[in-house]
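user: can you give me the structure for this one chain? tokens are fine.
assistant: on it. calling the predictor now.
[tool input]
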Amino acid sequence: MARPLYITTTLPYVNSDPHIGFALEIVHADIYARYRKLQGDDVFFNTGTDEHGQKIFEAARKAGKEPSAYVDEYAAKFRALKDVLGLSQDIHFIRTTDPHHVAAAQEMWKRCEAAGDIYPKTYTGLYCVGCEAFKTEKEIVDGKCTLHPSLTLTEVSEKNYFFKLSKYQDQLREYLSQPGVIVPEWRREEALKFVEDGLEDISISREKKDGHNEWGIPVPGDDSQTMYVWFDALTNYISTLGWPEEGGDFKKFWVDGDTMQMAGKDQVRFQSIIWQAMLMSAQLPRAGRVVYHGFITSGGQKMSKSLGNVIDPLSIVEEYGTDALRYFLARHVHPFEDTDVTMEKFKEVYNADLANGLGNLVSRVMKMATSNGVQSREQDLKFLDREWEIPELDRYEVNQAIESIWSLITTADSFIQTSQPFKTIKTDRKQGETDIKVGLLYLIQIAVKLGVFLPTTSKKIEILIRENKMPESPLFLRKE
């Protein structure tokens, strides 16, 4: 019986082009979504764009555009990632400017307000435009935000509405004490410690003043304020399911299903504390689990436009192909820790693992098969339609899962080198045919297991095997 599973990425902020960090998140989520579909689960896979806030307003003004036109342009770029990154074609895409989402965010506000959890207060604090958030003392080092050290914190004093996060300290402690609600385990311990150190109520609105904070969802009942962009955006995880409609996809996937969110390691406070408290306040089910990935760094530093070390995933796809990027993100970027990435490393891995490794193996085996009139056995071809369990993916260890496939490629290469069927078939036809069929069986297993990771390449290999053809061109052209 199909199990309902909900998978969502975070919504990237549309103040710049898609970057490789988000490509990592959405490709890993897509791999897991494809895997669970392979197991027969009914999967709702969600992504989209976060389009409100002062940072967006300023970026639009700098570009000489109206905010609505600006976000339309960038939303289109992120929507195009479905094809660029080879994502599941049934992926859902939500924008926080969608009318339904706006209504849902306001309904979330009303429910939290009805629970007595929203109140007005005049507040003075240090505000980071990069985070779109007021920063606490432990989030500031040497007078700078730890996440955006190149930006100057601004002292802001204004009337805001606050959310009683502190009210949910005990419930959050109980929630975060459950193994599995956060992956990896040490991130759960990090979140639990954050809660145990004491929670403060948080500002969830911004005052419209001097042309600032105009670009956002109006606070219900107070047009002088717009919603804090996080309070607005987090609601997307259920508005995409049709909430506040209580039935339909919301009931199927969020209430009765298995829910999984993916996010970067800097999102723990927002995804596993603030969002869960909002759900508690609105008397809605909490997320089943949140899986946190590390950062992609370059040359030992976090990627930054100002440092000039940003790697553009679209450029990689243009030169190397979609599956080359998917492969690198799956095998050579750690699912939980930070990973240093350079284009030199990417090219080295591409040539060694794809052009000389997988691509060369497919060409060698298919050349032996077609030139000697040898085809896969019928019982072996049945493997192409077989479901495959991937225990490493059940633990979200994407790199270990694809590592096992490359071990199989190494084994197949070794078999060809040792048995040398291209020579044997000239002196012992029967043995040569047997060895070539073994080589084809290796390719069949590789094609099946690659399906959730490199879907296009997997399909190409399957077609070559079924039609007993040589590839018209190398699967992966070597780059000099």
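assistant: here you go. Residues 342-467 form a domain with the Isoleucyl-tRNA Synthetase; Domain 1 fold (CATH 1.10.730.10). The first helix runs from residue 20 to 38.
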